[in-house]
Write a structure and sequence with these properties.
- The protein is an alpha/beta fold and 807 residues long.
- The protein has 3 domains: 230 residues, 3-Layer(aba) Sandwich (Rossmann fold), CATH 3.40.50; 244 residues; 171 residues, Transferase(Phosphotransferase), domain 1, CATH 1.10.510.10.
- Helices cover 52% and strands 11% of the residues.
- The strands form 4 sheets. A 9-stranded mixed β-sheet has the order 4-3-5-2-6-1-7-8-9.
- Helix 12 links the parallel strand 8 and strand 9.
- The two termini are 63 Å apart.
Length: 807
Amino acid sequence: MCPRPVVAGILGLLVMETWPGCEWSAAREAVGVHLLEDVLLGLQVCCTRGRESEEVGVITAASARSDPGDFSQPASCSQLQSITFQRQEEEYLKLTVRCRPCIFVLGHNCSARSKVVNALLGDPVLPVGVTCDPETCKRRRIRFRHGKQTLVSLALPEQYELVHQLVAHKGKWDTIPEEDLDIPENEEDPAHRMAELEVTLPYQLLQDVDIVVSPCRGSQPATSTLEDYIDHVQPVLVYAISEDLLNSQDEEELNDMKTKYKLPVIFIRTNPKDKLICSPDGGNSALHEQLTELGYLKKGICSCGAAGSGSPAPSVLVEQFEKLRQLSNFSRQVLQMHLVDAAMVLNMVHSRCLDIFINKAFDMRRDLQITPKRLEYTRQKESELYESLMRISDRKQEELKDMIVETLNSMREQLLEDAANMQFKDISIPQNGEPIGAQEVKSCIYQIKELIISRLNQAVVNKLISSVDYLRESFVGTLERCLRSLEKSQQESSMHVTSTHLKQILNAAYHVEVTFNSGSTVTRMVWEQIVQIIQRITWVSPPSITTEWKRKVAQDAIESLSASKLAKSICSQFCKRLKSSHEAFAGSLKQLEVGHSGRLEKTEDLWLKVRKEYAPRLARLSLESRSLRDVLLHGKPKLGRELGRGQYGVVYLCDSWGGHFPCALKSVVPPDDKHWNDLALEFHYMRSLPKHERLVDLHGSVIDYNYGGGSSIAVLLITERLHRDLYAGLKTGLCLEERLQIGLDVVEGIRFLHSQGLVHRDIKLKNVLLDKKNRAKITDLGFCKPEAMMSGSIVGTPIHMAPELFS
């Protein structure tokens, strides 16, 4: 159902005062629901494209990162939910903006409820009759709606009308016949027992609001009536009381309502025995005390219905029935409460989205700045490492020769001893010293050779790796972390393969894995030397494999090894592997740079969109929704005398607003969208900052849509009022101690802004205000922005700007 506009009458809504002549749909547009939905729709389109072009991680909320130093990790599309309406928020806003108000008349008994309805409509539409028993009464629920003709029918709630002949159909009536109100005792049809009596009347009040009259508890509990309607209307609860005190069943019913719905209620006594008034000492009636104990009323609210200093829409007790007109003020307060809550929810959505965009802009800005530096750092450090290792290889050949000679000399006796005691594998050695065949001899010599090579390999490699350990410690850890970060910022699978290959190359080069595997150059060289040894060993017949023989074979093999040739071979192999790794690294890094170059171009485009389009648009929505809340709560501020005039607005005196006094009011009429966006972002930053004694407090904002007689729209920012600005203070004279203290105060304020990631960009005498003790506070954050939102343009007041900005 499309809701009608709420016009002047008992339930005139404040939204009509905020936007004169608006309908509900226009009011909804004004608070930014449609605009926010448009922005979110645009983001969903970007997100859909992002699945194909790696934009997803740029436009959605920052995801949880395993590495706190990584600013480029992509976010999943499911995170788009964090920048849209949550389901409960959306449902609540729809309910507040689209649904009609509805007065629920609850109460003691049928007679009390009928008196309230008749007084509201101005006619005896319902029979008052004799007071019924609430526990046994079987009266139907009644709903009054507006219509051009007077009609009465039975209908299932929000479903369809039942075909049923009523007494009211037989002729004209002024009061609805009781037979149509009561459920017959012999009625067996469940649909007829559940049906409510729907009455359409051509009354002016019903143009603005529906009225639902709850049946007695014997027919249906009050909470069941509310449950059927609460999701489709804006409820205003009226509880009619015809007795001096509530009974236990009434208390139980009220407790149940308070627990489930927590809605304010206006209690109306329809038949008080005596007229009660508020005593000077604050004494209240017994009924007032009873409702206070139930938690509906608070101390400070008069029993005659005058509102105290409680919540924006407190429950009220009206003990004189002739003061039923107070229902109008109560209804306005209740609907105002709903509008304020809805505006606050909407503002929370706007602010949450805006914070996400600003934080994401920061992430993108850092990505744009850091990724090229990471790539350059990787190239530079790898080059330094490569050159260092090559220098080590060049100067290590003589060292390796000496190291091999030293290693062989130190290991000689142990090698000879191990060879002499060696037990050969897969060879049967006679115990009586008999000679063996030539094939077995060769196998024995081969195993002795393997022993010497393995021991020599282990000793030489350990010393070689230890000589470059300091390079591995200082280079590899940092480079691997940098490469891991570059890998995470890539979306394409090919980039993942390239990065993985790059890390493997680096590991192979940096860990200096110089090994002497079988088939390697060094191994073949050693084997050739040992073959020559074997050839020099002459025997007429196969020798006996004794300890002395094994020792001699090992001794000849060790003496025949050439340390210079081994050293040269090791260094040559080392250099070859380094060069191959370096070339593979350069190729992989080039591919990585190409991938990042394309990604960063898209990131920069999206960063510009966030900074110039999405964030300013949401900032304006946030300003409008917060201003709506402030004007609903506190009304429009009254402009006093002019205090000052600047480039973008006029500052007026404002005696009091929203419980703050005295105040200063900055009136700005934005001439175009750019100024609107700047003002909206200024408001967002000021409101988002924690209170600080060196910053001027922002109390709130109001958008005046009728500024200058309706010719323009002005934004009124209400702040605390201080004594004077620093310019006026210097004119009147300040001592040196006061000047130093002011300087410290300004530095403290600037330092606090920087700690929050903001740069003021317009510090000058007029933007430093002094209190009566000449303590300074910074104001006017019109040019203040996070670094990630800056475009690089020069802003500020020229005479106060730093000279280097003009270069």
